[in-house]
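Hi team,

As requested, here is the filled-out complex form for the nicotinamide-adenine-dinucleotide run. I kept the field names the same as last time so the parser does not choke. Let me know if anything looks off before we queue the next batch.

— J.
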Amino acid sequence: MQVCVIGTGYVGLVTGACLAHIGHRVLCVDNIKAKVELMQSGKSPIYEPGLDEIMQSAMARGNLEFTTDLAAGVAHGDILFIAVGTPALPTGESDTRYVEAVARGIGTYLNGGYKVIVNKSTVPIGSGDWVRRIVLDGVAEREAEIAGFDVVSNPEFLREGSAVYDTFNPDRLVLGSNSPRAIAMMQELYQPLVERKFAQDKSLTPVPVVITDLSSAETIKYAANSFLATKISFINEVANICDRVGADITQVAQGIGLDTRIGSKFLQAGIGWGGSCFPKDVSALIHTADDYGYSADLLKAAVAVNQQQKYLAIAKLQQTLKILKGKTIGLLGLTFKPNTDDLRDAPALDLIKELLRLGAKVKAYDPIITKENLEITLTHSPKELAADCDALVLVTDWQEFIELDYAELAHKMRYPVIIDGRNCLNPQSLAAAGFTYVGIGRPNKTVQQLVTA
Ligand code: NAD
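And here is what came back:
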């Protein structure tokens, strides 16, 4: 099918490249010229495992092209995906100006045959109707010349760091529209994915397709992210209780996660959730509820717990080092999770700001982030990071950090203290390597045993 994807960020570029890979003819549009030129040369402007490879093979087959020309994109696509950013405004509302600009552009250039306009961006509930009106305004007196269009909400659930895998192996697809014709075109588009032709495990049953009205599809996206964020805040709250009563959250999480009603995913306690989706999507849902006179207290509590959690590493550093002024703290990782270069709303940013406010010096090592305007020293290796540090904080659970030679790092440090902000290290191994190990909700068993004895 002829597809146009407008906005080539984490969602748009992965969607465009994967649809081209499965055989559709895709033209991706972005309004940043330098980005488009880079993609035209077969390189992805973002770090996402496997993306360069599928881009290059789809481009070689002539299935994937890039342009800054929205008019060309609208003319090319029978299906037009809107995949631009919807960041949070300071009020917590979603900033929909980029979606609005694209919808206006589509309205201006719409011509020829019937088109399906797909909201792939995470947009406030009700945006499907709003986009339709904007496009109609743009079409204005040309309405008789066009063959019509419908709007579909097709929220995206991919995870940064495994976005290509997730696109080929989705848990479900959600299609929201009241137009059977538009839904039928979307089903045709996704048929190879539904039949798992490009999935890792092709023997599984077909991918469930949830067909809904527009606002239910929009709500599904916000509800899914709000649930996951709340689940993490829940386990973090239990971890904070574990810290006080002497229980171990990793054992507690295992014990509750085996209950199939609960499930073991998203039960890893740590220094809080972040990234470009959870914070903005939870606050957008809270905001929508407020607009309708309903106070979403559970979601507000999930945000409040997370806000505290982001500073938990500081409290633990203070308990261990007492004074942070003048001390050097090394951060292992900066992004909110491994395998991504996305720093938006990463908990590390709040941590850095607070450490600097308290007078600490901050260094960091990240396997991908090598240049950032962060007022900290970025080092080139964990060894360089550890040199003369008073403590390390493991911020991101990169596999490479789990496999480090911690005994070697301990020798380089002024005080071998580590706050394991993701509970991904083995406390006994770290102690054997000479570290004072502090986890999240994993109280120091040696001290506890002494007290019990
Ligand atoms: P992003 O910021 O990485 O990419 C947005 C892209 O749109 C940029 O390349 C930008 O240059 C381009 N753009 C902006 N205005 C444009 C215009 N007028 N014309 C053409 N291009 C334009 O955003 P993202 O992370 O890919 O997120 C996109 C949407 O998908 C958001 O609504 C987000 O909430 C949602 N989403 C993101 C993820 C994720 O993991 N990042 C997952 C699911 C859903």
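Two things worth flagging: The chain is about 45% helix and 15% strand. The CA atoms of residues 166 and 397 lie 20 Å apart.

Thanks,
J.
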